[in-house]
Structure formats: C-alpha cells, structure tokens
Amino acid sequence: MMHLEHINIVVKDLDQTLAFYRAAMPHWRIRGGGESTWYGVPRKWVHFGDDKQYLSFNDSGTGKVRELASNEMGVAHFAYVVADLNSLIARLNNAGFEVRIWGGNDPHAKSVYFIDPNGFEVEFVQYLSDLPLERNIYQ
Prior knowledge:
The chain has helices at residues 14-24, 85-94, 132-135; strands at residues 6-10, 29-38, 41-49, 54-58, 78-81, 101-106, 109-115, 121-127.
C-alpha cells in the first residue's frame, strides 16, 4: 500500500501560512521544526500535520506562484477531503479567508477552492457517498 506522506512547500511567511492551514485543519499540529540553510539562504521550516501526513513549510520564498489562469508549469491545486465542508468554510472565513471558487455541488460531492497566503490554490471536497462510482464521475 502507498499513500502521500507529505508535500514540501516553500512559502513567504510561516506565520501567515500557518494561520490559513490551522484554520483549515484544527486537528493538525506542528510536529517539529528548525532552521537550515538551503543553497546559501537561511530559512526556518516546520512540519504541520498529524502522525501520518503533513505539510512541510519552508520560509524565505521568493518570486511568485504560477498564474492560476494559465498553462504555466507548476502546481495547479491540491485537495483535501473533509467531513464537513460548511464548518471548514466557516473556520476559514472567520480567519479572514474567502472562498475563491465554489466548485462541484452535485448529489455526491461538493467542493470549494481557497487561495492560501502564498498564492497556492487549495481545494476542499466533501463526499456525500462512499461509492467510488458516485464519488468519481468523469464526464
């Protein structure tokens, strides 16, 4: 069996980044962190997650994220399955983040997209069925 353990993301500001992800994932925690040098640039890093998966955030990011309305190379978005989409939206709204795109809203799934403080698009989806044929409709 295989599963995704972590994603390593270079960000501009750890505190702003953690404000977003803590609101989205209140059950996650900082697992560890420290300081390092990456190609001559000092940076701080944290692992934010649970015992099985996490996001690795590294500060001192420069430049900009790819233009989301383009075909430029890079991450388009990444997604998390949530049990209660309305609660997640409320937590992120209360933390000052607004829905960017209202995604799928069919009988078996609903989703929304937010932009994190670094410009990364994050999708959150709530499935309303356990049946793969209903959850994964390809039309």
